[in-house]
Protein: P-loop containing nucleoside triphosphate hydrolase protein
Organism: Ceriporiopsis subvermispora
Amino acid sequence: MYHLLKGFHEYLTRKDEFSVIIIGLDGAGKTTLLERIKTLYNDTPGLTPDKIAPTVGQNMGKITLPSTILQFWDLGGQRGIRSIWHRYFGDCHAVVFVIDAEDRERLGEGWEVFDGVLKHPQILGVPLLLLANKQDNPRSLSVEEIRNDYEEWFRHKQDSSRRVYGEEIELEQRRERIASLDVMGISALEGTGVRAAIDWLFIRVQNSKRRDEMDGNNR
Ligand SMILES: Nc1nc2c(ncn2[C@@H]2O[C@H](COP(=O)(O)OP(=O)(O)OP(=O)(O)O)[C@@H](O)[C@H]2O)c(=O)[nH]1
Ligand SMILES: [Mg+2]
């Protein structure tokens, strides 16, 4: 009887665990975001911004939501470290790409890297959220401006690669994904917009294609 009740209790309190990777160029604010998330959702606060150094490798953090655990992997964004990102693509349930909306000079570089991520077959069908960070700075581009800038960059890329055989179909697939892409504005520094981003992730991981695979494996 005890085992029956224990099993029933475990069933009722069971929490599904999902992995979310946080990527983007160095300096975009990924670690500041992860530490802000910890402060907002955990009893033990995350590091304050003055204690955060550039990431060499990865940082990890977990938060508990109703019947769900979100496990975050914040991956270093420096050029040499980006080559490890793909190792996380196969197992993650969602991808968060952080853009520094204040740094206009590096937007093009950011889109180039973002486009490389979108192209990756392993994340096709995985929920993807683009975050325009540093919205506390009045000089930052708004969500609307960030979206337009990316679309313009993409159109330009499409035009210049029309002549390359085979690339057009691939670009068309990406265009569809971009059309349904969600972009949200946040300030990792002040915490604005962060709860809305977590709500988005919470909903989207439950319906993620990879969740079906997970359930299938547990059967
Ligand atoms: N104004 C402002 N500054 C921010 C915000 N988020 C991060 N920063 C600053 O941006 C700089 C880089 O932040 P990090 O969190 O270290 O950036 P990162 O993306 O983790 O960088 P790597 O670890 O090198 O990939 C720091 O000086 C942060 O204080 C924000 O929302 N607003
Ligand atoms: Mg970092």
Observations:
- The helical segments are 2-12, 30-41, 86-89, 107-119, 143-160, 167-179, 194-206, 209-218.
- The beta strands are 16-23, 58-65, 68-75, 94-100, 128-133, 182-185.
- DSSP finds eight helices and six strands in the chain.
